[in-house]
């Protein structure tokens, strides 16, 4: 049982890393805007659509699965 969970956990880790790396950048600002207080677009958030929305959902699911599998592996290894 533990080996199966470990295999699923490792697969989820690789998929989660790929999902995070495939997400597009959220801002077009450079690092200077953070230093100079450039928060002019604080309330101008756009809702993600298309590819961004799909990647956000897949990343959330993979993150939740990561957490659940980690807790399951802890439970199985302690019993």
Automatic annotation (TrEMBL):
Q: Where are the transmembrane segments?
A: 6-25, 53-76
- Membrane-related topology note: Multi-pass membrane protein
State the superkingdom. Bacteria
Question: Where is it located?
Answer: Cell membrane
Entry keyword Protein transport? yes
InterPro entries given in the database record: SecG
UniProt main location, coarse: membrane
Tell me which UniProt keywords the record has, alphabetically: Cell membrane, Membrane, Protein transport, Translocation, Transmembrane, Transmembrane helix, Transport
| Pfam families, per database record | SecG (PF03840)
Q: What is the similarity comment for this entry?
A: Belongs to the SecG family.
**What does the protein in this record do?**
Involved in protein export. Participates in an early event of protein translocation.
Recorded protein name is: Protein-export membrane protein SecG
Q: Which organism is it from?
A: Limosilactobacillus caviae
């Amino acid at each position: 049982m533990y080996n199966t969970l470990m295999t699923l956990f490792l697969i989820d880790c690789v998929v989660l890393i790929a999902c995070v790396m495939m997400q597009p950048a959220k801002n077009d600002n450079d690092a200077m805007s953070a230093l100079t207080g450039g928060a002019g677009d604080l309330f101008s958030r756009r809702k993600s659509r298309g590819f961004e929305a799909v990647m956000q959902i897949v990343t959330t699911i993979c993150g939740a699965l990561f957490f659940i599998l980690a807790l399951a592996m802890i439970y199985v290894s302690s019993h």
